[in-house]
Amino acid sequence: MRPKINCKNCLSDEVLFREQVFENGTRHLRAECKSCGKFIQYVEQEISYEEAASFKMPFGKHQGKTIEQIGLQDPDYLAWAAVILKPGNVKRRIKVFQDGMPEHVSEVIPRVFDEIASKQMDFEA
Ligand SMILES: [Zn+2]
């Protein structure tokens, strides 16, 4: 599915998409205006479960491990990261992984979410 975008330069909606893979493994569509040729923006493509699971954490104490490895070794961390991270590449992949998570991992994570939710309630009280 491709998003509707217009060229900010000439307002044309004739957009050309080219696939581009970034160094961190994310796949994007590079949108260019067909009329004036200007670069418009990068649009990230859909992320598959496999892609999300094999994505390597670019930072933090589990840097270099895949999201799947972290989900198995330290699910608390993954659940915590999914809550506190700003919207972006990493958060999106954690969400995709969690949505399609194998059962042995998902048994642990909802419990952690409940704990986080109850801690947040404590703050509000
Ligand atoms: Zn244009």
Describe the global form: elongated
Largest sheet: 3 strands, antiparallel
Number of strands: 3
Helix-strand makeup class? alpha+beta
SSE string, helices as H and strands as E: EEEHHHHHH
Please identify the oligomeric state.
single chain
Low-pLDDT segments: none
Figure out the total of helices: 6
Helix proportion: 40-55%
**Termini, distance in Å?**
44 Å
What's the arrangement of strands in the largest beta sheet?
1-2-3
Q: In total, how many domains does the architecture comprise?
A: 2
- Portion of residues in beta strands equals 15-25%
Average pLDDT metric: 83
The molecules bound to the chains, other than polymers, are: zinc ion
Radius of gyration: 18 Å
Write a structural description.
- This protein is an alpha+beta fold and 125 residues long.
- It folds into 2 domains: 1-46; 49-124, no CATH class.
- The protein is 42% helix and 16% strand.
- The chain is built from 6 helices and 3 strands.
- It has a 3-stranded antiparallel β-sheet with strand order 1-2-3, with no helix packed on it.
- The radius of gyration is 18 Å and the shape is elongated.
- The N and C termini lie far apart (44 Å).
- The model has no long low-confidence stretch (mean pLDDT 83).
- The structure holds zinc ion.
In short:
By secondary structure, the protein is of the alpha+beta class.
List keywords for this structure.
125 residues, alpha+beta, 2 domains, 6 helices, elongated, binds zinc ion
